[in-house]
Amino acid sequence: MFDEVEENPTSRHVELGRCFAIEYGIDLIVSVGGGSSMDCAKGVNFLLTNGGTMADYQGFGKATKPMLPSIGVPTTAGTGSEAQSYALIADEQSHMKMACGDRKAAFPCRYS
Question: How many C-beta neighbours within 10 Å does residue 22 have?
Fold first, then answer.
């Protein structure tokens, strides 16, 4: 379990998550929590599967390779991160927030 996400995740949090994922050889991402944990999970998925840095994914549709399957389990109401394909990640150095999105980053929605 990676639990080093803080409010308003930065590129540093995402990189720590990427290193954790590599160390444990994960093949599925499950994010439990609010928007910060879900955004960080999406960021980890970008870097783990497509390489580079978060700045490479600013905008939409920049992931050229498949991404890992992921599940979002919201425990708060507010950001709606579980229902859309963007991750809002701040650059660790400049503190500028980057909106990084791709259809492949969205958590699947299934209702029974």
Answer: 11
Report d(CA 95, CA 2) in Å as an integer: 23
CB 42 within 8 A of CB 105: yes
Question: Is it the case that residue 110 has pLDDT exceeding 60?
Answer: no
Closest CA to 64 of 102, 90, 93, 100: 102
Q: What does the alpha-carbon distance between residue 24 and residue 19 come to, in Å, rounded to a whole number?
A: 9
Judging by DSSP bridges, how do beta strands 86-90 and 97-101 pair with one another? antiparallel
Please state, as a whole number, how many other Cβ atoms lie within 10 Å of the Cβ of residue 19.
14
Q: What is the pLDDT of residues 56-95, one digit of tens each?
A: 999 999 999 999 999 999 998 877 888 899 999 999 999 9
CB atoms within 10 A of CB 83: 12
**CA separation for the pair 26, 62 (Å, rounded):** 22
Task: Give 12's Cβ-side CA count (13 Å radius).
Answer: 8
Q: Is residue 88 a contact partner of residue 99, using CB atoms and an 8 Å limit? A: yes
Q: Which two tokens stand for residue 72?
A: 């979002």
